[in-house]
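Narrative progress, year one. The postdoctoral researcher (J.K.) led the effort to move from monomer predictions toward full complexes, under supervision of the PI. The following entry was the first complex the group processed end to end, covering 458 residues in total.
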Amino acid sequence: MVLFSKVTVHYPKSMKDALKKLDDMAAGCRVIAGGTDVLGELKDDILPTEHLLNINRLEELRYIRMKNGELRIGALTTMNQILALPLTQKHASILVQASRPFGSYQIRNRATLAGNLGRASPAGDSIPALYALDSKVILASSDSEREVPVAQFFKGPRQTIMKENELIKEVRFPALKQDEEGFFIKLGLRNASPVAIASVAAYLRRAGGNGRFEEARVAFGAVAPTVIRAPATERLIVETSIDDDRLAEICKHAGEETSPITDIRGTAQYRRHLVGALLYQGLYRLIHSAS
Amino acid sequence: MPQRPVKLVLEEFRFKVNGRPVTVNAPPAYMLLDVLREQLKLTGSKEGCGKGECGACTVWLNGEPVTSCLIMVSEVEGAEITTIEGIGTPEKLDPLQEAFVQEGAIQCGFCTPGLIMSAKAYLRDNPDPTEYGVREAISGNLCRCTGYVKVVKAILKASKNGRKRAG
């Protein structure tokens, strides 16, 4: 177990200060924000460290703004803030739905959006929603800034394309408009702090009102080394108009796009079946709802 | 276990607990839960899992429920912490505590402080609570004894009691 009495906690005074410290310390430290993941891991001796770069006080990274039809969420925005604030409720329903079953109320008061991204768990709940929303991740280092589409951000479990001296600064995506909708559904083993056995996020744009969709973005979580899009399923959704039979047919094949593992939460076979079932649940409700 | 005495790096942290200012000397990465229990002798908050999954350690940080087993003491410099010891008094229980007692929502009592902290924040922010809302609000607090039925009933009852008392 990490000897917490030997851990030094650094509190940078600004993003600039934090990035400079990251340049100096890089692999010798772990970045910590809300700490709900990192501290638990240190208690289990996972990726131990003697230096924590605590960025949680950088209020400059905690915001939700709208600019030019784009929703911009600061890296340190907590999951409860995403749930509660009007801008996200109005324009980011898919992410709000992903935030609701996230952890617990206590965890959501601390857990940050960037933390969920940085941890790069294939089961991370915000991630499929961000895929469905076609999000971009803004990364900053002391001498540059870059924009990475979220689908290119992850390389595998715990692996991102982030450089050692980079911090996540912001996540942005087009605000959902009237004719755009979506959902996030996950199944866990209990109702709070459930790691997803599988999760499904979808973005859909209707083409008129007869069960036809113009565009579909579907993302699956916890069924591959990273969150994945499901292009074949997306094509099937927009190809023809969807009635209940067609929906069942599409969902039956959804699992074919996944490469899940068997672990303590479920078998690969179960997960392959589960994504189809969750997709069916979400799409069925959406198609049969009023708007 | 270490073979030699570990040289502790202690720093001083000042914050408020239940309205009173405290000064604590501790390693910056020590958990708030441990500091509350061992240094401040406020043993109402419990360690159930140490990982933020059971909620037995729930306290308020600047009025918001958090799991204190995952908060470092250095993080609460300048902050206001509220623990179960700050809710009601033995002479005059908070309406929520009274409802727990009246409804039989306490068995072994280990989860109770955390539940009270979560529920009280929920009732504070939701003057018209629903059963679903209550269950969602306490979903981060595990109870092995009660099955939650009387807990939920007590929380809903407390909201009516509170309103009655407030007039």
